[in-house]
Give the backbone structure.
Amino acid sequence: MRIIRGIHKGRILNPSMKGWPTRPTTDISKEGLFNMLMNTIDFEDTKMLDLFGGTGNHSWEFLSRGCTDVTYVDKYGGCIKFVTQTRSELDFEEELNIIQSDVKRFIKSAGYQYDYIFAGPPYPLRWLDEIPNLIFEHNFLAEDGLFVLEHNPNHNFQSHPHYFKERRYGETIFAFFE
């Protein structure tokens, strides 16, 4: 896993991931997504939420680009341990809030708003199709905010009232909501 831009550009992070229920976003699809985000987001002024954070791939990219308010949520101990260690190594203790929680429980109880939300759930997650509704029902997205959901071709969000576009990179699809 490589950080594409910012103060840690080119930095390679190697989580063990043995036995982890994660599927890190590929460099090609992540680079495509961040090329689009560079034209729409002021990273330094963004309050970012990384749901199903896994290795922290998206969190590291936002932090490296100057974001000072990132919340990472995942429930798996191995992921939390890796992200906690990496946060210290990269000196992001103040900028990165790590929450070990089930994502559905977090959404229902947190009560915060974010400028940018990224969700990269496991593709076989039984309630994956509910994620956009949960985000909007619980008022998680700030006014003029952007929510991006990573999924595979087994899901289609084009009829969702907040959906506005998607980008596809092989079997990886990013659905954009506002």
Summary: DSSP finds five helices and seven strands in the chain. The first helix runs from residue 27 to 37. The radius of gyration is 15 Å. The mean pLDDT is 92.
